[in-house]
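Researcher: Next entry: DNA replication fork stabilization factor DONSON (Cercocebus atys).
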Amino acid sequence: MALSVPCYSPSFRKPPEVVRLRRKRARSRGAAASPPGELPEPAARRAALAAGLHLRPFPAAGGRGGGGGPAAARRNPFARLDNRPRVAAELPDGPAREQPEAPGPFLDSNQENDLLWQEKFPERTTVTELPQTSHVSFSESDIPSSENTELPVDWSIKTQLLFTSSQPFTWADHLKAQEEAQGLVQHCRATEVTLPKSIQDPKLSTELRCAFQQNLIYWLHPALSWLPLFPRIGADRKMAGKTSPWSNDATLQHVLMSDWSVSFTSLYNLLKTKLCPYFYVCTYQFTVLFRAAGLAGSDLITALISPTTRGLREAMRNEGIEFSLPLIKESGYKKETASGTSLGYGEEQAISDEDEEESFSWLEEMGVQDKIKKPDILSIKLRKEKHEVQMDHRPESVVLVKGINTFTLLNFLINCKSLVATSGPQAGLPPTLLSPVAFRGATMQILKARSVNVKTQALSGYRDQFSLEITGPIMPHSLHSLTMLLKSSQSGSFSAVLHPHEPTAVFNICLPVDKVLDTEVVHKELTNCGLHPNTLEQLSQIPLLGKSALRNVVLRDYIYNWRS
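Model: Predicted structure:
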């Protein structure tokens, strides 16, 4: 006989047992309601669907527990309910991708990112669709722009050249006194040196070493050994703390500018008589490139100024200097009439004033001219000149001066007070003049060159890598002469990294050409300019690099590849 226990009920269940029974009943009801071959949906998923959330379809249970049907990948139990696992039908070897469906009202973060990416880059392909090649190019700039037996002309000034080769550059070190003297004489006398196509032993070639010394020489004014006089744009930090006794001495500043004016005039006269091919004027704000007639495809003396500002262009216009903006289609400085004649700046201003008066005449006809506030003349002028200010200090602001106007530009630069800084480390210091030939007041300078031998890792161990570094203001003729020389010394195989002075890269733009020049006539007229005939032929070509400059050069089997 069973004993009766007070407050005891045979149907009592402990809480864990109650929860277990409820789960069992829910599973049995779900299995009965779902079709065969599918898993019952969890309670949390059913609650989310009841709340109106749009979820991905729950995976089928085919293949689980030994059942029939296609096998499905096991679902990650720690993933979200709306994170659909990858099924066998979506493997890379499956059918081609279909077009993406239209996005629904609710998207998860992955779907949103994919849609945004497809909108920005519709040509995107999956990794499996990439061609099976050993190298994939990621940017257009990595592709060599061209290949030829000669380099294109580059009018930018380089600050550093780094040549690398599998053959040593030891022949460029420690020149003998006789070789150094011979190189200086060859430069001063503009001696033409022609090297063989390949030199067997460069270290024993006296002719090669003398020619190397000859190609490192350039001419500079002013020459102050304790100050870096190139580049001048952005050089305040390098010049800070240097001794400058003229900064507070007006008399000394006047003497420096007087000597500089004489040197500048001497250079222009040499250029005009075609005894100097080109030269640079480097100020703390802009750089000017003067080129003799016959160079860069022009039959006139040309001067390029970059970068410029609206104030500088306005001052040049007031001095009567006619110029153009080659990179600006709608100049705004020069308007063509129906007869084809150009209007002066004064006439343009008068016409624009008449247009402004006519534009507000209708207010007077309506009798409301006093009630509506008209914009003042200054704001109208600033609005019209907004595009001029926006291109200041940019490559697009480059200015071209041609013909007799270059002489007017010479006088303008000599008398321009803003040519010299009035404060800072460059205060009172005249601009730097750079030339490939000697001129009055110039100082001979030599580019710095040093060779370095390093070990680089290769597949079979380590191999020797030889490099030659050249620093200084490297002008176009020096770049071409050095590449010709290294082509012979390195047996037609080397690579080079070039560092251009960025404000001068725009000097490579193609200028409008009125007529095609006869190459033979140009070479005959510029025979005494002091350049090698091959270098002169290259500088006579029309520039093709645009606003960019050479940055990487590779020579293989006497064929050049370059990137800009």
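Model: Note for the record: The CA atoms of residues 236 and 453 lie 34 Å apart.
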